[in-house]
Prior knowledge:
Layout: E1 12-20, E2 25-32, E3 38-45, E4 49-54, E5 60-68, E6 73-77, E7 80-82, H1 90-102, E8 104-116, E9 125-136, E10 153-158, H2 159-167, H3 174-188, E11 197-198
Parallel strand pairs: 4-9
Antiparallel strand pairs: 1-2, 2-3, 4-7, 5-6, 5-10, 8-9, 8-11
Helix pairs in contact: 2-3
Amino acid sequence: MGIKDTAETWETLSTRRPFQGAKTAVDSDEVRMPDGSVARRDYQVHPGSVCVLALDGEGRVLVINQYRHPVRRRLWELPAGLLDVPGENPLHAAQRELYEEAHVKAGDWRVLADFYASPGGSDEAVRIFLARDVSDADGERYEDASSEEADMRVEWVEREALVRGVLAGELGNPALVTGVLALTAALASEGGLDALRPAESPWPARPYEA
Length: 210
């Protein structure tokens, strides 16, 4: 039996935008329910994100550590960033983020996983890329002392250690959890990592021009 998500749109009777931020907003929709009643749905409007699971030849994953104010914690995460430009090619955005946050480049790119970060309260779509054949990027290291990157710590960590941290409840960033477990599943599957989708595979949640 094939199981997959399907597109569906319930009738939206009205939309308000009570908050507009620098990168995201909040919309409040009046939605017609299947039984004919009307319900309000408040949610974050988000441009979408890309993440990079960079894997070196020793089976280590590149992770960064930074403070996340909403949850009042320092989290270990994958290099990631927003799709700031409408219609931006997500692969190009991922390559940029890997360079800016870790000064790393990669020769082989695949799509590891696509997911919605919190579909009950946000339309944020996330694409995780697998990057292999990694090496230090050319030129000077990117630095922006005014951004969150100024306080980042970068480490290469064994995949197995990250899996243990996820299962122990010690690592909670959703892209890291999804990426590490998806990588582990892909390694154990027929065809392995070479069977993953090409880097510029279609992404219905955030259409783009290749």
